[in-house]
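Lecture 7 notes: from sequence to structure.
We start with the chain below.
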Amino acid sequence: MYFTRNFLFLLSLLVISEILTAQVGIGTSTPANSAMLDVQSNDKGFLLPRMTSAQRVAIISPVSGLQVYDTNTNSIWYFNGVFWVNTQAMASAGDVKSGIQTADHSGWVLLDGRPLTSLTVTQQAVATSLGLSGTLPNASNSYLSQNGGTLGAVSGANTVTLTQGNLPNVFFPVTVNNSGDHTHAVDPVAVNTSNNGNHSHSVDPNSVPTSTNGNHTHTGSVSGSGWNAGGAFVGGFDAGGFGLYTQILTIDQSGDHNHTVDIPSTTSSTSGDHLHSIDIPSTTSTASGNHTHVVTVSSGGSGTAFNIAPRSLTVNMFIYLGL
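Predicted structure tokens for the same chain:
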């Protein structure tokens, strides 16, 4: 018993000395020079500490490189100094992938626009470090594009509506049927003649009546026949008791009346430049002769937007935020 205890004590000292001075080999007497611990076996493996995801996250101040086996994800995780990384996923925070999974898995979070507050505390911290805030991006009906915009932002649309400016400059020449004679009504606008050059105008005013105001007389004569009754005929002759006569009379001056005056036609002076307004009457063109007309043709479009999304495989988009 004493010998055994001494032997074990000496063996322990040798092991401790070996650990303090050189590499340690388990299953080998010649550990690799670059390894502090070299474990070799043909029928056994190296077993990491096993724990749940909650227990792993609860490790206080994990050191960079610390490794454990997560029994929830059934994978090895290591701490990279900032957050835990799933070696099965082999992803870094912010990596984006597509998949036919329908929910979060192994640190991969579905990009469905949900609030960041619905994630774990660790995932929220990672999302904030990536510049995300408020909600996750919603990748529904979206495509990945390196377009120089804000990372994680969703923009654009899957439909487009063409405008006239988007169309090529195409002309649609059309000639209407030129058969059949027909007329056109033309009504030119009134125009003014030139005011250059001296010329005259002939004016013939209409007859007008004078005013009926004012008393005046008229002198006239009357002629007649009758018997001589004890006197000589004035301006007549005696013909056996019967003679012809002419009598000068003066009409009573009382009573208003008017007279018709016909002003004679006159000609104006030829001096002085002036113009005239001429209203050309509406006329109708001749019906003879076939001719054509220029018309505008509608394209018949309605401006309906059309889908520009190509044929695609339906997947979900995920971002790696860890657990």
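Points to note: Confidence is low (pLDDT under 50) at residues 227-239. The radius of gyration is 63 Å.
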